[in-house]
Amino acid sequence: MNISNVNVGIKKNKKPLRLGRGKGTGQGKTAGRGHKGFGSRNGSSMNVSFEGGQMPLFRRIPKRGFNNAGAAKVANINVCDIDKFFNEGEVVSPETLKTKGLIKYRYDVLKVLGDGELTKKVKVQAHRFSKTAAEKIQAAGSEMEVLPGKAPLVKFQKKAKA
Questions:
Q1: Opening angle at CA 103, ends 99 and 104, nearest 5
Q2: Which helix (DSSP H) or strand (DSSP E) does residue 132 occupy?
Q3: Mean pLDDT in the chain?
Q4: What are phi and psi of 77, to 5 degrees?
Q5: Could you say which of 3, 103, 126, 162 would form a disulfide bridge with 110 (CB–CB 3.0 to 4.6 Å)?
Q6: Planar angle of CA 71, 73, 76, nearest 5 degrees
Q7: Angstrom distance (rounded) from CA 15 to CA 29
């Protein structure tokens, strides 16, 4: 094989099959759809979880757990990421993390975790710090600032009795 025959046999403008146009085409009469049934009908595409009328797996298994709508969404950042993406003397805040693309989603609380090492002196602003992260930040001579968190969700307040 050489450069002159790389594309030999490749049809660039292949015409679509004309279905249902006589027996001689190999795609005549039923056009490859078989006889009757759901698959022969127009728009016959099933849900991925459809099991032919059998009770699907996701409905056979019982529901479990609880989704807490009021729970704070926590974004995590490791000490090694701070060391990698920030220079000496910079401020690590939720805004700077967003501009550098380290956190790309919405969250309520920013937590710094202690994976890796910190070698630079930076000022870290976050809502929470893990125990190991706090130790590593202090060991590097960096500053920590705890930001105020999101106010807890209050659904109902008891009325004072008159």
A1: 85
A2: helix 131-139
A3: 90
A4: -140, 135
A5: 126
A6: 140
A7: 20
d(CA 42, CA 21): 18
Q: How far apart are CA 155 and CA 70, in angstroms?
A: 9
Domains in the chain (CATH in brackets) are 79-146 (3.100.10.10)
Say yes or no to pLDDT of 103 above 70: yes
Structure tokens at 140: 């590097």
- pTM exceeds 0.70, yes or no: no
Which residues lie below 8 Å from residue 56, measured CB to CB, with a gap of 6+? 49, 50
Tokens 């709508």 belong to residue: 69
Task: Give the pairing type, strands 123-126 and 143-146.
Answer: parallel
Q: Looking at residues 100-126, what average pLDDT do you find?
A: 94
- How far is CA 112 from each of CA 25, 55, 81, rounded to the nearest angstrom? 66, 45, 10
